[in-house]
Design goal:
Strands 1, 2, 3, 4, 5, 6, 7, 8, 9, 10, 11, 12 and 13 form a 13-stranded mixed β-sheet that branches. This protein has three helices and 13 strands, in the order H-H-E-E-E-E-E-E-E-H-E-E-E-E-E-E. It has a single domain, classed as outer membrane lipoprotein receptor (LolB), chain A, CATH 2.50.20.10. It has 220 residues and is of the alpha+beta class. The two termini are 18 Å apart.
Length: 220
């Protein structure tokens, strides 16, 4: 499954691969494009980025409150995300997906991975795949934000839409909500950000020696 927070950070900001219609989009589409362009320019100026976030999911007949949340670190096409003990890491060419509950890691190449979408893969494969639409301006935790929906052109994608809120004053992401086609939602609320932290390259590689008895599924 695509992890929506990584998807949005890559898709809506780093890559600029969202839908852009050359035939003068409608007023709400154009407003969404302008806001996304500004945020993309902001994030593109960062060498590294760190975010702390809260996470919640729900499905039909079942709801789940906020859990302990997680952390996300990015450096170019490299990333490290921790969510409830699970770890998702890429050095830009290889992806490691570690599931703590079963002490197992899946290893694949970035271009083969269906679980994570990186800035590079978006540039290569996801051009003109979404239509952005400005929905409204609202107050979120004391900050004015613009709410934008990203709707995929392909009706067979796992998610029917992604909702992203961007702070009006700073251009930073406030929250992300992904809607799957079975009625479930996955919400990520950004609680803290750090611009250009010092991140060692070693952070973006997974060392199986640190996990005694780990199961390794190498799909390369």
């Amino acid at each position: 499954m695509i992890h929506p927070l990584l998807f949005i950070l890559s898709f809506a900001i780093f890559s600029g691969s969202y839908y852009q219609d050359t035939d003068a989009p409608g007023r709400y589409e154009q407003r969404a494009l302008d806001i996304l362009d500004n945020s993309r320019a902001l994030f593109s100026s960062f060498d590294t980025f760190h975010a702390e976030f809260e996470y919640a999911s729900s499905s039909v007949g079942f709801s789940q409150g906020l859990n302990d949340g997680g952390s996300l670190y990015t450096k170019g096409d490299k990333y490290y995300m921790r969510l409830d003990g699970n770890i998702f890491v890429s050095d830009g060419s290889t992806v490691w997906s570690f599931v703590e509950e079963i002490n197992e890691v899946h290893i694949s190449y970035v271009y083969e991975s269906e679980g994570i979408i990186t800035p590079t893969s978006l540039l290569d494969n996801y051009q003109d795949a979404f239509r952005p639409l400005w929905i409204r301006q609202e107050l979120h935790r004391g900050k004015d934000v613009h709410v934008i929906d990203l709707v995929p052109d392909d009706p067979h994608t796992p998610f029917s839409k992604y909702r992203i809120a961007i702070k009006e004053e700073s251009g930073m992401i406030a929250y992300v909500v992904a809607y799957d086609r079975q009625g479930g939602t996955y919400s990520y609320i950004i609680t803290e950000t750090t611009i250009n932290p010092d991140l060692p390259d070693a952070l973006f590689a997974f060392n199986t020696d640190d996990y005694p008895g780990i199961g390794v599924i190498d799909l390369r």
